[in-house]
Design the sequence.
């Protein structure tokens, strides 16, 4: 969120001059400051004001500053606490930090020092709150998977319904109206396509998870799979002025796996590389074999994936939310399915990316060998992947 | 006093926003469109809408909850009517929406898709336009 109500800061200090100057400085910083002269009143104030930060003098009559710290964190563990203290009590201040205070400010301090520490503390809190919020939401969504899926299905349906419901009332035969009706019908068709993609991706996922997508283990030449997939997307790519290149070795790249699954896997990776590319961009698929492992890289020169999203990239229904890709259609399932497929085959997948430069996906799969003794291990890997799903 | 009542719609689904906005405009409202929470908060604060239509799941998170919370924290927007429009079904126990007076403090909940005519009627009632 870029805009928010002014953050509240509670100052607890028995020194009236200190309270006044803190209040002035904080107000100038655009913060809402409330001051209290002792611990008891201060704690009441914290309970009602629910501030983002508490600045507390350690040495006060009545409840000690140290006790204030722990009581404030009982009220809300996310409140950032800064202690102010005279030079003589630096040890106590260090102790306070150990008790959960964020930092301390030795007296006397300049307005700049106060501003610095307040800004730093608030920034840290914002980051902590944001990541916590994000975690909570992700856990919530995981637990409520069915609710979430039905929401995903209902969203395009709602848009289609809403268009049609309003279309009933769109009278008038002028060009504007005619154009609008036409546009809306096109939008409806796009959303229906979205719904179809979602259902088919979801089905694929269910098949991968349930093991009903054929689980044969045969010798598959990835050279063929990749060349076929690239050929299939030549037109789509050139429509977006993206060029496709294969850098595959002359000899075959054999893996021991399921042909259908491998098709789905490279289909996903290559379509993503085209979708999230830029006009004039490239997609390069290379392959090599070393030490019993086949490594395929799918590199694009597209928009890239910001680092903060990368840990979530392979999770079901996760989609990067930045403006650069917001309008790109997708179900949020492709990479999740890809990861499941790779795990089922005992391999691994990871990504390297730079924003604005492009992304490279690495797929490592066990190479096919004349005598395969690793089959059992691969199945184990598959089972493990099933367990971590939900 | 403005002649036209101003409605803010906050929803990340551009198609949904387009359909509802168009319908409201045809019925004499002025509509402000926001496609995420931050934009919604900014428009709410700067344009002081007469009523807000709010989606909950935006950009793959429950951004609407936070957005309503932030809007309500502004004293000037404490009592602006907020209608929640969401594809979450209210009946599902695991997504219980706290009703009016709770921290979320919204006025009405609609499950998407909504009956557009009924929505219009409720909006009119709430902003004080005689039907």
Sequence:
């Amino acid at each position: 969120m870029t805009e928010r109500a002014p953050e509240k800061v509670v100052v607890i200090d028995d020194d009236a001059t200190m309270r006044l100057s803190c209040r002035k400085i904080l107000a100038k910083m655009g913060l809402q400051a409330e001051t209290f002269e002792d611990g008891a009143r201060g704690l009441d104030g914290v309970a009602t004001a629910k501030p983002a930060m508490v600045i507390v003098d350690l040495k006060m009559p009545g409840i000690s500053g140290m006790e204030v710290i722990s009581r404030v964190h009982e009220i809300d563990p996310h409140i950032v606490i800064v202690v102010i203290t005279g030079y003589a009590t630096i040890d106590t201040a260090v102790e306070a930090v150990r008790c959960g205070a964020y930092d301390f400010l030795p007296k006397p301090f300049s307005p700049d020092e106060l501003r610095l520490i307040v800004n730093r503390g608030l920034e840290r809190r914002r980051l902590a709150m944001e990541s916590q919020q994000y975690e909570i939401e992700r856990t919530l969504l995981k637990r409520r998977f069915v609710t979430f899926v039905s929401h995903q299905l209902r969203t395009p349906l709602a848009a289609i319904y809403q268009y049609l419901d309003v279309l009933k009332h769109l009278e008038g035969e002028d060009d504007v109206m005619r154009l609008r009706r036409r546009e809306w019908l096109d939008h409806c068709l796009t959303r229906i396509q979205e719904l179809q993609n979602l259902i088919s991706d979801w089905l694929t996922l269910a098949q991968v998870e349930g093991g009903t997508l054929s689980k044969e283990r045969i010798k598959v030449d990835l050279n063929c799979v990749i060349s076929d997939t690239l050929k299939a997307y030549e037109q789509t790519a050139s429509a977006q002025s993206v060029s496709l290149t294969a850098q595959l070795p002359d000899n075959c790249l054999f893996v021991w796996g399921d042909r259908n699954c491998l098709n789905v896997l490279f289909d996903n990776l290559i379509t993503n590389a085209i979708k999230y590319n830029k006009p004039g961009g490239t997609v390069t698929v290379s392959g090599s074999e070393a030490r019993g492992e086949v490594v395929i890289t799918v590199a694009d020169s597209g928009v890239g994936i910001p680092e903060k999203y990368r840990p979530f990239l392979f999770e079901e229904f996760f989609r990067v939310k930045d403006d650069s890709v917001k309008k790109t259609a997708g179900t949020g399932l492709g990479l999740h399915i890809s990861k499941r497929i790779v795990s089922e085959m005992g391999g691994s997948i990871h990504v390297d990316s730079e924003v604005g430069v492009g992304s490279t996906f690495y797929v490592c799969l066990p190479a096919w060998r004349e005598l395969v003794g690793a089959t059992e291990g691969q199945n184990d890997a598959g089972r493990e992947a099933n367990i971590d799903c939900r | 006093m403005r002649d036209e009542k101003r409605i803010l719609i906050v929803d990340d689904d551009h198609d949904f926003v387009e359909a509802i906005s168009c319908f409201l405009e045809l019925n004499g409202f002025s509509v402000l469109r926001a496609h995420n929470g931050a934009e919604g908060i900014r428009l709410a604060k700067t344009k002081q809408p007469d009523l807000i239509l709010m989606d909950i799941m935006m950009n793959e998170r429950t951004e609407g909850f936070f957005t309503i919370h932030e809007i309500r924290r502004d004293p000037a927007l404490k009592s602006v009517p907020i209608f929640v429009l969401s594809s979450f079904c209210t009946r599902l126990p695991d997504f219980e929406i706290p009703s009016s007076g709770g921290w979320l403090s919204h006025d009405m909940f609609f499950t998407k898709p909504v009956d557009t005519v009924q929505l219009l009627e409720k909006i009119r009632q709430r902003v004080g336009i005689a039907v």
